[in-house]
Amino acid sequence: MTTMTFAAITDADVASVRKRHPGAFGDPFQRALVVGSWAIMIGYLLYSFHMFEFYKLFQASDRALQMLSRMVVWRDMETWNYGNIYTGIAQTIAMAFLGTFLGTIVALGLGFLAARNTMPVGIIRHGVRRLLDVFRGVDQVVWGLVFVRAVGLGPLAGVLAIFISDMGTLAKLYSEAIENIDRKQVEGVRATGADQARIIRFGYIPQILPVFISLSLYSFESSTRSATILGLVGAGGIGMIIIERFRAGLFDQVAFVVLNVLVVIAIIDWGSGLIRKRFIGERGH
């Protein structure tokens, strides 16, 4: 038995092996495509760093450290307007609750109109779906700006922004849940001679109720966080207090307000978890 050395391998041998086993040597075009893709991605990343002037982050490090230190050291706490702060937090929770509640109720009806198995008329179903695309395709902050312009500064604009945004998202999710229910229960109710309202009540609602509760609670949690952001654009709530304190340079009060908001969100999250566990069980988490 003879052993072939590298020096004895000729180009003809390599070409012969390449022809018999093309996959073992890789595809030059694929390699070039991968290298080119990486080169384009790295080049675009470097261009993005240059375009957004990230170097300013290092130039502003002193100001950032000064601001952070003023957030940590709280001064003159006895002079802070606590009533205003906690009223803003209560207003934010109320905005999130009312907007989510209204959005949930309307979304349930729209979900039936957008589901294939409950709305056989295609033009209505597709019309509702496109309308929902508009509602959920526009960010809540943009809706907030629209309603601030329409109804003026204040929490009403925030409630309407949350209502529109949540309605679009929840109706889409409800319609998918309705389309995935077990048809046997619906057919069983229909076989009793029940009218359409009773079919929905006893055939559909019991099956989508866990999804309805879970999504509604999650939406409320999310809306509580969003309501804080909406306040920054003039839609009332604790966000307006944060931006006022920020503009006044009262960074210690900003930190205090943010910490309170985090505590409130944690409590809502904990309460929502208990409700899910009570009505849905462990699978709701």
If you had to describe this structure to a student in words, what would you say it looks like?
By secondary structure, the chain is an all-alpha fold. The chain has one domain: Orthogonal Bundle (MetI-like fold). It has 12 helices and no strands. It has helices at 11-20, 28-51, 55-59, 61-72, 82-114, 122-137, 140-151, 155-179, 183-191, 196-232, 238-247, 251-279. Helix 5 runs antiparallel to helix 10 (196-232). It is flat, with a radius of gyration of 29 Å. The relative contact order is 0.11. The mean pLDDT is 84.
Number of strands: 0
The biggest sheet, with number of strands, parallel, antiparallel or mixed sense and barrel status, is:
none
Instruction: Give the overall silhouette.
Output: flat
Mind telling me the C-alpha Rg? Answer: 29 Å
Distance between the termini: 67 Å
Strand composition percent: under 5%
Number of helices: 12
> Structural class, from secondary structure content?
mainly alpha
What low-confidence regions span 5 or more consecutive residues with pLDDT below 50?
A: none
N to C succession of SSEs:
HHHHHHHHHHHH
Can you tag this structure with a few keywords?
single chain, 285 residues, mainly alpha, MetI-like fold, 78% helix, 0% strand, flat, PhnE/PtxC, MetI-like_sf, transport, MetI-like
Strands, helices and their partners?
Elements: H1 11-20, H2 28-51, H3 55-59, H4 61-72, H5 82-114, H6 122-137, H7 140-151, H8 155-179, H9 183-191, H10 196-232, H11 238-247, H12 251-279
Family: Belongs to the binding-protein-dependent transport system permease family.
Keywords: Membrane, Transmembrane, Transmembrane helix, Transport
Membrane topology: Multi-pass membrane protein
